[in-house]
Write a structure and sequence with these properties.
The protein is of the alpha/beta class. It folds into 2 domains: 3-24 and 70-209 and 383-429, D-Maltodextrin-Binding Protein, domain 2 (3-Layer(aba) Sandwich); 212-380 and 448-483, 3-Layer(aba) Sandwich (D-Maltodextrin-Binding Protein, domain 2). The chain is 41% helix and 11% strand. It contains 18 helices and 13 strands. It has a 5-stranded mixed β-sheet, with helices on both faces. Helix 2 packs across helix 6, helix 11 (274-280) runs antiparallel to helix 12 (302-315) and helix 17 (459-469) runs antiparallel to helix 18 (474-500). The two termini are 15 Å apart.
């Protein structure tokens, strides 16, 4: 099942070197915005690419006609809170901007190559051996060529990569991952030993929806005469301690029953997975790919441990309503925030779709930095909710797959991204111009943490179990699983090294 990868190893290594160089110097240009291409704002430090005089467009053979062949995507992911994200189903124009953008993109690519884009949606568990891993691995082992490509959750897709079930995208003909419609930060964070088995970019919006951020209630900011959060961001003063201090001013037992429940007022409504966002908000990671291309365990630095302490002190206090301890249903916390019962709501960008009818104005903010000295913000992509593009190792027509995916990514830059960003996120959900600037910061400073996705030492679980237990015992949890985490990293590096030969 590693046949195609091994056959193309020389090309993979060559392209990987090019990609690593591109990741260091590639910046944004033009009006389209994606997770890695959003123009920076505030004090974000990014290096912009030199201005280009012509717009790049991929080139394909004139006779590329695939005779009406089906091009099937497998779409899987976690079903928690009905999280179902499908970037490719669009059977007709409906008047809904994002659907119609996808329909136009698909139609252009279908007509260009004479193919029929179809989707097989199979949602369910997604913890490494979920529906994505099971279905794609069975297809590869059977050699049935059932899927041309897939969008699969981070946990499952990492297991597929380690097990040899995926085609190296850096070796896929016609795919140029250095182009701006592919996420350059993903190239930097997800490539191990020169292998790029999964990625994202303009071709998908689900990764943007799964990016953690802060929403804030403008009425409560005014009522309590709090500092302008936007000004704090622009002045480089939006840090965790400042956020916690602001949150503490609005907490109150509204009904006087001596208990803090959903009937009361809180500084923040918290999704427990936000501890992962706090870690990545320091620009640190559970697992980091170093200059030698290998992954190593990096979660127990002084800076990350200090942030864990800050997070626990804040979230374990009465200032926070932790709704996952009550129910995974998001209805109650959304009603609380809409009813002016919380200053902040720490969630993912997808939450904006739930706040469309909120009467009080709200804004959006980056995840706070660790301190003012930190050079940039950092934004995690929810491990449970992530989706990445991949290709089965046994695909029989690499040329066709490469052409179609490259064309879809390019057309997405021109059609889907503007529909998602300008007309949906900004045009439909956001309430002010400042939120546009905040979105630019959030989507240009994302962190792809392979330590979470590869479940090094099961720290992705342990850090959440600590939150569930409402006890900051990180030191003992880290010590208990450190040897396993180091073994996990060594095993992953060895598996990737084997494919180089």
């Amino acid at each position: 099942m590693q046949g195609y990868i091994i056959m193309k190893k020389t090309l993979a290594i060559l392209l990987s070197a090019i990609l690593l160089a591109a990741a260091a110097g590639c910046g944004s240009e033009g009006d389209a915005v994606t997770g890695s291409e959003a123009p920076s704002g505030g004090d974000v430090t990014t290096e912009e690419a030199p201005a280009q005089t012509t717009e790049y467009a991929p080139s394909f053979p004139d006779n590329a006609d695939f005779g009406g062949a089906e091009f099937k995507f497998l779409i899987t992911g976690n079903t928690e809170n009905n999280w179902k994200k499908d970037d490719f189903s669009a059977d007709e124009m409906t008047g809904e901007v994002l659907n119609d953008s996808r329909f136009e993109r698909n139609s252009r690519v279908e007509e260009r190559f004479n193919i029929d884009i179809t989707v097989d949606e199979q949602y369910g568990s997604a913890k490494g051996s979920g529906s994505g891993f099971t279905l794609l691995s069975k297809s590869v082992m059977a050699g049935d060529d059932a899927y041309a490509a897939a969008m699969i959750n981070g946990y499952d897709i990492c297991n597929l990569a380690c097990s040899g079930y995926l085609y190296d995208l850096a070796a896929l003909p016609y795919v140029d991952l250095s182009q701006r419609y592919w996420d350059q930060k993903a190239n930097e964070d997800l490539m191990i030993l020169g292998h790029m088995y999964y990625t994202t970019g303009d071709i998908s919006t689900s990764d943007n929806d799964a990016t953690c951020c802060y929403f804030f209630n403008k009425k409560l900011v005014a009522d309590y005469s709090l500092d302008d959060p936007y000004a704090l961001v622009n002045d480089g003063k939006w840090v965790y301690d400042k956020m916690a201090s602001m949150a503490g001013t609005v907490t109150g037992d509204l009904n006087g029953d001596g208990k803090m429940t959903s009937d009361d007022s809180f500084g923040a409504i918290v999704w427990d997975d936000s501890i992962m966002a706090a870690v990545n908000g320091t620009l640190g990671k559970c697992g980091t790919v170093g200059a030698d291309g290998t992954i190593s365990l990096t979660i127990n630095t002084d800076r990350i441990v200090s942030m864990i302490d800050k997070y626990c002190a804040f979230v374990f206090s009465d200032d926070c309503y932790r709704y996952q301890r009550v129910s995974y249903d998001i209805t109650t916390p959304v009603n609380m925030f809409s009813g002016d019962q919380a200053l902040f709501f720490i969630q993912m960008l997808d939450l904006a779709s739930y706040l469309r009818d909120m009467q009080t104005d709200f804004g959006i903010l980056p995840v706070p930095k660790y301190d003012e000295a930190q050079s940039s913000y950092g934004h995690t992509i929810g491990s449970w909710h992530s989706q990445f593009l991949c290709v089965p190792a046994t695909l029989t027509d690499p040329d066709r797959t490469g052409m179609v995916l490259e064309a879809l990514a390019y057309e997405s830059l021109n059609i889907v991204t503007p529909g998602y960003y300008e007309k949906t996120l900004v045009g439909k959900y956001m309430r002010d111009e400042e939120s546009r600037d905040m979105l630019d910061i959030i989507l240009s400073t994302r962190v792809f943490d392979l330590g979470w996705y590869y479940q090094l030492g099961l720290y992705n679980d342990e850090i959440l179990y600590m939150v569930y237990a409402e006890k900051n015992d990180w030191a003992s949890r880290y010590a208990k699983y450190e040897s396993k985490a180091l073994e996990d990293a060594a095993r992953i590096n060895a598996l990737f090294a084997e494919t180089i030969g």
